[in-house]
């Protein structure tokens, strides 16, 4: 019989949990519905509103305008004139008979563009209609950073020879003919399965796959909702988590490196992001994993994971700095003034001030391991095979930048800082 006093029994520390503050100048995580047509939102000169569809239809029925409403929806016509006719000039504050807001405040964004909004790309929202950052998006970016780190430091961690960068490049060139048909899953067979799931566990009758993926030991929660708030910084008011609808310029370049305008998108984003999420590591579970070919795990702590993300961000930062340094402004690009001085200024610091790049517009360098490949021509070959062809140009060729309220090119989305707020086990 164990007579040890309960007060002296210590539970082993098997979890390391850190509360992380995430901040970003501008961020967009795509929604399940990729884009909306003009009849699905209401744009004024100041704001863009997403209606509560059920409340709007109910109110239209109550006012005897349901058929006209349905006609406009079917014809994909704008709704503003009908809203004024039914609810008056203050239609934004209208409610249905049950007191339900037709245009909830948290479902609207500041309008940062005076251009006509044809199609609107939405930011993801939770079940309450609040903007947020899914933990799956953060963990997916971390996973890519870890894969890149292992390929970059193959010797240090004993990455199997068939999964080294040179072997992957050779396999890609051999299978390029069929790559388009299996592009979405090609990385699994090439290196991801070997890096993440080719592990042995002490449990009997296990099968290689999700159960033997060492990232099971890493848990990332959804962020806190991105609720708009006003704070004071250096005596000046600052708006945090400000939802905006901005114009995004897609640009590329001519052979002489002069910037070229391709298209514009209208995207719902969040400006001055500040939120928190929890990053946890089950250290006991992590100790179970033994790679079938002896590869070492690249991290043993949450801080190791953050350091891996930082290194990945730094390599992306250097790559982007070189691109923008070589690009030449073009004030007459299809009627658009492509002046990227603010973007070049953004990338001036040698040390990347961010911990990772998340979400939309990260491009090939941020969502793949292409920066680990030494054969730069291979990037272009993959792009030309699986995406839009741009013969003779490096990949990625195009970039997405965001216009501010004045219509000037100022932002690149997705860069995020991580700050550890607390630690617990």
Structure write-up:
This protein starts with 14 loop residues before the first strand and ends with a strand. Helices cover 31% and strands 24% of the residues. The protein is an alpha+beta fold. It is globular, with a radius of gyration of 25 Å.
List the helices and strands and how they pair.
Layout (H helix, E strand, L loop, with lengths): L14 E13 L14 E2 L3 E3 L3 H10 L3 H9 L5 H8 L20 E4 L8 E2 L13 H18 L1 H4 L7 H10 L1 H7 L3 H11 L2 E2 L17 E3 L8 E5 L2 E5 L1 E12 L5 E24 H6 L1 E2 L10 H25 L3 E4 L2 E3 L2 H6 L9 E2 L5 H5 L8 H11 L12 E5 L5 E3 L3 E10 L1
Parallel strand pairs: 4-10, 5-11
Antiparallel strand pairs: 1-11, 1-18, 2-3, 3-4, 6-12, 7-11, 8-9, 10-11, 10-16, 13-14, 15-18, 16-17
Helix pairs in contact: 4-10, 7-13
Give the structural class: alpha+beta
Principal-axes shape call = globular
* Unreliable sequence segments: 1-11
How can the largest sheet be summarized? Answer: 12 strands, mixed
Total number of beta strands: 18
Q: End-to-end span in angstroms?
A: 29 Å
> What is the number of helices?
13
Fraction of residues in helix: 25-40%
Indicate the radius of gyration in whole angstroms: 25 Å
Mean pLDDT: 88
Percentage of residues in DSSP E strands: 15-25%
Structural features:
12-stranded mixed β-sheet; two-stranded antiparallel ribbon; 31% helix; 425 residues; single chain; globular; alpha+beta
Question: Care to give the gist of this entry?
Answer:
With 425 residues, this protein is α+β, with helices and mostly antiparallel strands.
